[in-house]
Structure formats: structure tokens, C-alpha cells
Amino acid sequence: MMVCVVTGGAGFIGSHLVDSLVAQGEEVVVIDSLSTGSRENLASHLSTGSIQIIIRDLLADGWQEVLSEADCVCHLAADPDVRMSSVSPLSQIQNNVMATFRVLEAMRTGAAGEILFTSTSTVYGDATVLPTPETYTPLEPISVYGASKLACEALISSYCHSYGMRGHVYRFANIIGARSGHGIIVDFIRKLSENPHELEILGDGTQRKSYLLVDECVDAMLFAAQKGKDQYNVFNIGSEDWIDVQSIADIVSRGMGLSDVKYRYTGGSRGWIGDVPKMQLSIAKLKDLGWSPHRDSRKSVEEAVRSMLG
Fold it and tell me: According to the model, what pLDDT value does residue 80 have?
């Protein structure tokens, strides 16, 4: 049994990761400020006492001592809003870069020697190679969010090589499913609940991206952590295809039992500043180790919509 600290463990992906770690018999400690996460996401574990939760902001103190008894840190706490990063960049720098630095410093002086970190496909920027492999260069993010995650990757790499830690960095496609609090599906459901006759779609609706259900994402993370033998490992995690925005709007509309919904486009190839219109990751590296997704992007979206609508 390992002691695993999960930062952001009350959030979307974090709570699903906690589910899997508990199922594996690990001792789990969650650190979360609950600014975007929720106790409800961990209710079953809190009621049975199978996890410990520490309500702290990583930018404050009072959580570092937990890492003195930890075997690994799963660092998921972050400001994940790509769209808002152009409006409020300081939040991304503080909650992504500085928070990661503080986690690494606590690890350096504590016992935890292994870190699992959730990065993003946006570190690639407007990649000219699709599907995009982990070896793609140059890495030129076009959003502050992508830049903040790339900075975190660099910090983790430096700490792994300087202080003998092991790192596993995961560059995600769009991860979707139950408990998600933001993203295109959440956005569409909210808008159609407010106005079932018309749906505003950011951009021109032709943006194409890969989508993966959160349970498969967590499975890939834990698989890669077992198989990644280097001191610093980087893996893409996603599906092997993509789906366009208008098709997602169709799936959400049907899932809500709506017909004849009028789509209104804001126009342009990008939905917002920093939006990457076309994204598909190469997962050949993970496949070579023996992992592959069970669903394509369309099936992932369909299942996510069903779970999110209840």
C-alpha cells in the first residue's frame, strides 16, 4: 500500500483518480481548497473514512507536512480555464506555476519522490503535425494556460533531474464526463437549459478536437505511471480521432430531447483567444506499452452527455 497525496482531488479528474486509487487499496490524502472542487465528489469516501481531506490552498501553508509521509504526489490542482486565461492571466501563473513550484519544494524537503502531473495538449500550440507526438517541436503555446502548464513541465523536469525525483507528465486531450464543471458540453447544456430554441456556438463550429472519457483518462494515467521507467516521462493521453463542435452541439441537443435548435455562430476559426481549432494527439507511445482507449471521440461525447444529464 502506498500513501498518495492528490492535490485537486475534490475536482473533476482528481475525484475520479481518487476513486481508482482507493479501489486499488492505496492510502489517499486529498489536498483541495474547494474553490472549484466539491466534497460531494468524494462523498462516498468521506462517509467511510477511506480518505483524508485537507482543505488548504496550495499558495498558503499548512499542507506541506503531509508530504513527509507520502510515497507519491498526484498534482492536479490548477486553474483549468483556458478561455479565462487571456482575461485573468495572474490566476494561471499563481495557481498553476507557483502552486506547482510549492508542491515540488515540499517534495524536495519531504519524503515523496514521485509526481504525477496533469498537463495539456495546449502546450503544443497550433501544431503543424497531426496527430501530434510527444517529440513535437517547437512548443509554442498560444494561451496563457498552455504557457503555464509548459512552465510547470519544465519545473518538474528540473526537479526530477536535480533532486532524484521521478516524474510522469500527461498531456491531455479534452477530458469529459460526470462531475465536469467546465468545457464545451457543460457550456452547451447550460445555454440550452436557458434557451432551448437557440444555441450560441463560439467560433464557426468546424473546430475539431479529440475527446476522452474521464475513466479512460485515469486508467491511462495509472498505466503510464507503472510503465514509464525514465526519470522524467511524458505521455499524450487522448483518443485516436476527433469530432467537430457542431456535431457535439447535435449530440447535446438530442440528449436533451430538443429538435429544431437554431445554431448561432460567433464566427472565426477560434472560439476564443488561445483556442486551438484543430487538435489530435498521437498516443502511439502509450499504445506501444499496451494501452489504448475503448471509445472514440463521438462515443465518449455521447456517454459524457448521458452521464451529465443524469
Answer: 84
> Minimal CA–CA distance to 120: which of 94, 95, 139?
139
pLDDT digits (tens, 9 = 90+) for 221-250: 999 999 999 999 999 999 999 999 999 999
Mean pLDDT of 100-106: 98
Question: In Å, what is the CA distance from 244 to each residue of 207, 248, 291?
Answer: 5, 7, 25
- What is the average per-residue pLDDT within 52-56? 98
Return the beta strands (E) in 194-272 as ranges. 198-201, 208-209, 211-213, 232-237, 243-244, 262-265
Q: Is residue 22 predicted with pLDDT exceeding 90?
A: yes
Instruction: Name the 3-class secondary structure at 6.
Output: strand
Q: Is 241 helix (H, G, I), strand (E, B) or coil?
A: coil
The rounded distance, in Å, linking the Cα atoms of 301 and 247 is 10
| In the predicted structure, residue 1 carries a pLDDT above the cut 90 | no
d(CA 196, CA 238) in angstroms, rounded, equals: 31
Is the pLDDT assigned to residue 310 strictly greater than 90?
no
What's the chain's Rg over C-alpha atoms? 19
Distance of CA 67 to the CA centre of its chain: 22
What is the distance between the alpha carbons of residues 118 and 14, in angstroms, rounded to a whole number? 10
Residue ranges of domains in the chain: 3-175+212-237, 177-210+241-282+290-309
Round to whole Å and give the CA distance between 215 and 178: 9
| Alpha-carbon span 124 to 279, nearest angstrom | 9
Tell me which fold the domain 3-175+212-237 belongs to: Rossmann fold (3.40.50)
CATH architecture, domain defined by 177-210+241-282+290-309: Alpha-Beta Complex (3.90)
Q: Is 90 exceeded by the pLDDT of residue 135?
A: yes
